[in-house]
Design brief:
Elements lengths: L10 E4 L31 E4 L6 E6 L3 H12 L4 E6 L2 H11 L4 E5 L8 H10 L5 E5 L4 H10 L3 E4 L4 H12 L7 H11 L3 H4 L2 H11 L4 H8 L3 H15 L4 H10 L4
Length: 259
Amino acid sequence: MRKTKDAEKPKNVDGGADNWHHEISLSGIKPKVTGYSGITDRTRRNVQVECVGIIMRILIADDHDLVRDVISLVLEQEDDITTAVASDFQDAAKKICDDGPFDLVLLDFTMPGMNRLDGLARAMELNQGKPVALISGTADRDIAERALAMGAAGFLPKTLPGQSLVHAVRIMMAGEQFAPIKFMIERMEEEEPSLASKLSERERQVLEGIGQGLSNKEIARELELKEVTVKLHVKTLCQKLDARNRTHAAMIGRDAGLL
């Protein structure tokens, strides 16, 4: 970071995709950051950041010119942020060595030379402990969680709105981790199959029979199957439902709305 000639006035940053309320410190200068931006109720509050005489330097590394230019344009609109760009990991690593460390490095997960999370680890080492984050339009929640566990400053989907991007950048430069709650929750719901999707049509029919209190023999008669086949279906659906026995399977099915 670099000092400016004139002190800045407090700025308002509107938007954001995370829930938060805390104070942060930038190089010994303690700005006050207060605010709340919710996802479920879409509340929007002002976030006041008071930071005197500091220019924050951000490196944006992405192999897509349009993505680089848009992110750079959004961030350069902030009076206290200046950006540098790189088109691949080799270029980014050279800029970090020659001009770094940067106050924040943003790395595209799939750009040439990244080698998935290996590039993140290398960039974190080169940037001498200062924040490094991933940006991606394709990486899933698992990649985001692994990056954060490695110590990445954050994970930014390329669908993040402009003001939310600015908000996220300020959080990461303050030493906090950032990942949009909505992204993490939606991906979790997409990746976890419903209970109904785990069972075949025949297994659901057997489960319905169990729920009605029928014996294996009675279920076999109803479905025109051999009793040994019904027993096999009961064993399989108990495994899929993580049930201890057929009664437990019926309870799980009822709680899930299958019965």
